[in-house]
Structure formats: C-alpha cells, structure tokens
Design brief:
This protein has a domain of 32 residues. The protein has 59 residues and is mainly α.
C-alpha cells in the first residue's frame, strides 16, 4: 500500500475490466471508488491552488 496518493489506486481491481471491457456487478464498487477518489483529488488540488494564489496576492 502506498503512503502517497497515486494516479491509479485501483489498478489491480480494474485490470480485468480494462482488458475485457465487460463489467460484473462487483466492478461497479471499484469504478465508483475510482470516481470518488478522482473527485476528491481534484477538489483538494483546486483548494491548494486557490489557497496559494490568495496567499501570493496578499504578500
């Protein structure tokens, strides 16, 4: 398990899906987890950039 976020945290679970392009009911859980992970990382990145730009404009 990685300590820092990676670009593909569900690689092992979604490997079969990317090879066959067929989904089983259990794959929806990993797909939803990947979507939530991506959304959280995007929001955190946005907030970090927003914070740094506001901080820079005040100095």
């Amino acid at each position: 398990m990685d300590v820092l976020p990676s670009s593909d945290p569900f690689h092992e679970q979604l490997q079969r899906l990317t090879e066959s392009l067929r989904m089983s009911p259990g794959d929806w859980t990993y797909l939803a987890g990947a979507a939530v992970y991506t959304a959280i990382m995007a929001v955190l990145g946005y907030l970090l950039i927003l914070y740094s730009l506001r901080r820079r404009s005040m100095t």
